[in-house]
Amino acid sequence: MIKLIECPRDAMQGIPEFIDTAIKAAYINQLLEVGFDTIDFGSFVSPKAIPQMRDTAEVLSLLDLHNAKSKLLAIVANVRGAEDAMDFPEIDYLGFPLSVSETFQKRNTNASIKQALNTVEEIQNLCEVKGKTLVTYLSMGFGNPYGDPYSPELVAGFVEKLDQLGIKIISLSDTIGVADAPLITSLLSLQISAFPHIEFGAHLHSRTEDIGAKVRAGAKAGCRRFDGALKGFGGCPMADDELVGNMATEVMIATLEENGFDLKLNKPEFDEAMKLAGFVFNP
């Protein structure tokens, strides 16, 4: 079964003009009607770092979760953010960005990799106590532009450390869109075979013309968890001067269905979400 994680948070976070809270909530409520496995809806991070997400708690209060099949995920960057997210029983998953690049870890969370690993352990302990699940994103998981060390063996070392902490979901993240199909297949295959008890996801950024090949490469490797954003909006504002957009969900859906996967989505509601995305991101 394929799990699609729709990421309006990732799509919105780098937009400099503040999106009205009611508009955010209306958009996410429409996404909840589609039947995605999970909605990455917001983040509990410093409003100075990501001002667009300063209203995450208010957005959550406006969501209609009655009969919603989708689970909610919020990104956190430190223990304080995790503690804030713990106050909301509606949130199922906490996501933490751990980077295999020392430079990007400092840019993204103002911490070293060693400090970030300690934070992961603390948040994992909180999640176990509070009944939530931690999703760890391995940022720069397919390479980085900073000249920091990178290799598949390095990634495997990070996965080993996370496995020792009891992390059950790890999403390999191509933060700047550098991965090609062969690397995606080989890296995911290696991790999935070595750690069959861990659920591996792919959070890939991509040019539109490369999305289909990347999805097929991930599926070929056995990956069944894919992140995307409608129309490919977004990208990490901490990563580089030129943002590479998210994987366009509509292209991922078409690719997966062409390859025989039944995604069990409500297509009329998806069409409405696509129309609303055009309004939210191109007012």
UniProtKB/TrEMBL annotation:
Belongs to the HMG-CoA lyase family. Keywords: Lyase, Metal-binding. One of its GO terms (biological process) is ketone body biosynthetic process. Residues 1-271 form the Pyruvate carboxyltransferase domain. This is Hydroxymethylglutaryl-CoA lyase. The keyword Lyase applies. InterPro entries: Aldolase_TIM, HMGL, PYR_CT. One of its GO terms (molecular function) is hydroxymethylglutaryl-CoA lyase activity.
